[in-house]
Amino acid sequence: MHTLLNLAWLGDGEPVATAQLAAGHDLSASYLNKQLQHLVKAGLLESVPGARGGFRLAWPLEAVSMLDVVLAIEGDEPVFRCAEIRRCGTIG
Question: Quick one: CA torsion of 7, 13, 18, 24, rounded to 10 degrees?
C-alpha cells in the first residue's frame, strides 16, 4: 500500500524506478521488485521497461481498494482451513 501511495505522490503518471521506491522504505530493490510484480500481475501497476522505466499506477489511486492490494500480494486462498478436529480423537 505504501508503494501505491508513493507512486501516486512521486510519479505524476511517470514511472518511478524500483531503486527509488525501495530506498524510501530501506528495502532491497530485489525484494520490492518481487512484490511489485504481484501488483503488476493483478493489474494494479504497470511496468515500464528501459532506462527511464519503472512502475506506475495502472488505475487512479481512488479506484484501488485495500482488498485489491491484499489479494494481489496474498492471493485468495483461505487463511484458515477447518480440519474438523472436534470430530477427531476420543472426544469426537
Answer: -30
